[in-house]
TrEMBL record:
Gene3D superfamilies attached to this UniProt entry: 3.40.1350.10, P-loop containing nucleotide triphosphate hydrolases
Protein's organism: Sulfurihydrogenibium azorense (strain DSM 15241 / OCM 825 / Az-Fu1)
Domain DUF234: 314-398
Record protein name field: ATPase
Origin: domain of life: Bacteria
Length: 457
């Protein structure tokens, strides 16, 4: 896998490595985000033990770990020894360490599944054997819920031991672009709308093909890599996926209020809450409120969205049509996708604008940015500063955007009460391909009107 971005994460690891004392780092995040690639890059040219845990018998894993350690330390004596537990190996390591040694246990959550006492065992190992030694321990895992429970949560025996933690997230659009050599922003947006910023998925999509042929080959075909990917990921994290799958399908179809989601599923709202909370914990769902809300946690205007682009695409276009796909009716499903894909990618466009808003030439310092809505009005972009506010409209049209869009935006802005009598207002229009001459001329005269063309991002 090509190594792109992750400079901040590498810097954290290097800082931990350069400490005179020991360090204990937890790396976690959903599958395919490049955690192992990050670790491989970091341990290049360093003395390091890398061990990939599995769900096999614990005794076999102890033996395998012992052999890996003996190879790195070039220690035939250790290799010949019979070792019955983890403590014995780490005690041996502790006596041998002179220069800095990195110990990586990848997919650590599998050890905890094989033996529920593993967090307590590693607590004892850290406290009694490693804490004062010249080494760096890295525990890495992909099952977010289980990694939190075993290493980060308050109830974990390892709680409070870590010296740093890294939650590896999908790439944003800026870094997504770096994976491709020759694509323009419009084609990149098509790809990003489907696969998001997951490095493994990015590698699968072929930039010489259009988005729909990529979807056919890599998502819709029943033997393709991505065909059942969300099923695999969710089934590892949750025991009873049926309700979770139904929630995600309803949200992908456009229902975002918890009451309406519950109604679609024939459930009471209070019975849905625990499922929603679990999906948020797993970083699959997110709750959003209008950006001007003073107390977001208590706001009654919260809406729920699927965070991951591919999950959103899959639950909207693949999951509901698997009966067709299983019988090879790929063209039927692809036609469904083509019929409203432009609308689907327009929502991704709005999210990219919110990502870029902090880097654009806005005439005030932005404190926070997001969307705003009430019962009957929605504003795509609202950015607030100390006493200034920007209202933005995103139009992913194949035609030039004109002054009518600006006028409509100004009308909608009147409904936002934030510092209404003492604020400085700006208006931004974000377009797929450009603006009419009339709107361009108006923006030249009025400095409160800002125009941004996506192809220039």
């Amino acid at each position: 896998m090509r190594f792109i971005n992750r400079e901040e994460e590498l810097q954290i690891l290097e800082q931990e490595y350069k400490k005179d004392t020991s360090s204990f780092v937890v790396i976690y995040g959903r599958r395919r985000t490049g955690k192992t690639t990050l670790i491989e890059k970091f341990i290049e040219n360093k003395e390091a033990v890398y061990f990939l845990a599995t769900l096999q018998n614990e005794k076999l894993q102890i033996e395998s770990f012992k052999n890996v350690v003996s190879e790195v330390l070039n220690d035939d004596l250790l290799k010949s020894l019979t070792v019955e537990n983890w403590e014995t190996i780490f005690k041996y390591i502790a006596t041998k360490v002179q220069k800095k040694l990195i110990i990586v246990i990848d997919e650590f959550q599998y050890l905890a599944q094989v033996n529920s006492s593993i967090p307590s065992i590693f607590q004892s190992i850290w406290d009694n054997l490693l804490k004062n030694k010249n080494l760096m321990l890295i525990l890495c895992g992909s099952l977010i819920g289980l990694m939190y429970k075993t290493t980060l949560g308050y109830t974990s025996p390892l709680y409070g031991r870590r010296t740093a933690q890294i939650k590896l997230k999908p790439m944003n659009f800026k870094n997504f672009k770096k994976f491709f050599k020759s694509l323009d922003n419009l084609k990149l947006l098509e790809f990003y709308s489907v696969i998001g910023g997951i490095p493994r998925y990015i590698e699968i999509f072929d930039e010489t093909l259009d988005v729909f042929e990529n979807i056919r080959r890599n998502v819709l075909h029943k033997n393709s890599y991505l065909y059942e990917e969300p099923k695999f990921i969710l089934k590892e994290e949750i025991k009873d996926p049926i309700t979770y799958f139904s929630i995600l399908q309803v949200i992908s179809q456009g229902e975002h209020k918890i009451g309406k989601i519950a109604s679609k599923l024939g459930m009471q709202t209070q019975n849905l809450t625990s499922f929603i909370e679990k999906l948020i914990e797993l970083d699959i769902l997110e709750r959003k409120v209008p950006i001007t809300e003073e107390n977001p946690e208590k706001s009654k205007k919260g809406l729920y969205f699927i965070k991951d682009n591919f999950f959103n695409f899959w639950f909207k276009y693949v999951f509901p049509y698997q009966n067709y796909l299983e019988t090879g009716k790929y063209d039927y499903v692809l036609d469904k996708i083509k019929s409203d894909f432009h609308v689907f990618e327009s929502f991704t466009f709005e999210e990219i604008v919110l990502e870029y808003i902090y880097d654009l030439d806005i005439p005030f310092h932005i404190y926070k940015a997001g969307k705003w809505w009430d019962k009957d009005t929605e504003i795509d972009v609202v950015a607030v500063g100390e006493d200034s506010i920007l209202f933005g409209e995103c139009k992913y049209w194949d035609s030039l955007v004109g002054v009518n869009v600006l006028h409509q935006l100004k009308e909608k802005a009147k409904k936002v009460d934030w510092k209404k009598d003492k604020r400085k207002e700006y208006y931004a229009v974000f377009s797929k391909i450009g603006f009419t001459k009339e709107l361009i001329d108006l923006a030249k005269k009025d400095k409160s009107i800002l125009l941004f063309n996506f192809q220039e991002f």
